[in-house]
Write a structure and sequence with these properties.
Layout (H helix, E strand, L loop, with lengths): L4 E14 L2 E14 L3 E5 L6 H8 L7 E6 L2 E2 L5 H11 E5 L10 H10 L5 H14 L15 H13 L5 E5 L7 H18 L2 E6 L2 H6 L2 E6 L2 E7 L4
Parallel strand pairs: 3-8, 3-9, 6-7, 7-8
Antiparallel strand pairs: 1-2, 1-4, 4-5, 9-10
Helix pairs in contact: 3-4, 3-5, 4-5, 5-6
């Protein structure tokens, strides 16, 4: 592994059974990402971007090839080891928010910390810090049904960032948001990337998200067709 490399894939292939044949979602992906990147997989539906994000997030395993994440070979992790990697080092942001409707904003953001060994006072400070990052300290006692879509997504970002993970994976995080909320969310994530050097990796075909990326990896039919570093970002 290279010194600053936190993600490395070599000859990555992922196939899924489809009737009597199979569908190749990823077909020989070779990529390397360093700490602190703000990058994304771009491509139409079916291009393989979510599959690739899921493998990097240890939610799936390669059919062939290797994916190394934070020094771990994803295909060699046991289910327990993969869960530990996600629990400690990864944050996830989904387009559907995945908030617990019956719990308060505070409780939703606190949830990942309950799986880790923090005291009550440590958890409270970490949750309030995370809500301050996303500008929602005034909504601490609110529940998701009382929030707007943009506010719900900001809670989801706070939940993903509360433990200050090494890597945040975001799958179409602005799909359900209007333009103003999308830009607010993306600016928040970009600021967190700069402040904490957290690596952000997106799967998207949203032009708003694409305009913020510092690196754009274009996928088509499971292959990388272009890998572009954006200057002055």
């Amino acid at each position: 592994m290279e010194n600053l490399s936190i993600i490395k894939t070599t000859g990555l292939i992922k196939t899924f059974p489809m009737g009597k044949s199979e569908f190749t979602a990823l077909n020989g992906i070779d990529l390397n990402f360093e700490k602190g990147e703000f990058a994304g997989f771009i491509g139409p539906s079916g291009s393989g971007k979510t599959t690739l994000l899921n493998i990097i997030g240890s939610l799936d395993v390669p059919t062939k090839g290797e994916a190394f994440v934070l020094g771990h070979s994803i295909s060699k992790l046991s289910a327990k080891e993969a869960a530990q990697l996600r629990k400690v080092s990864l944050g996830f942001i989904f387009q559907s928010y995945n908030l617990l409707a019956v719990h308060t904003v505070f409780e939703n953001v606190e949830f990942p910390l309950l799986l880790l060994k923090y005291s009550n006072s440590e958890r409270k400070k970490m949750v309030m810090d995370a809500l301050k990052w996303v500008g929602l300290t005034d909504k601490v006692k609110s529940k998701p049904p009382q929030l707007s879509g943009g506010e719900c997504q900001r809670v989801a970002i706070a939940r993903a960032m509360v433990k200050k993970p090494s890597l945040v994976l975001a799958d179409e995080p602005t799909a359900n948001l209007d333009a103003a909320n999308s830009h607010h969310i993306l600016q928040t994530m970009e600021n967190l990337n700069k402040e904490f050097k957290t690596t952000f990796l997106f799967a998207t075909h949203d032009d708003k998200v694409i305009s913020y990326l510092h690196r754009k990896v274009y996928l088509l039919d499971g292959k990388v067709v272009k890998d572009e570093i954006i200057a002055n970002k």
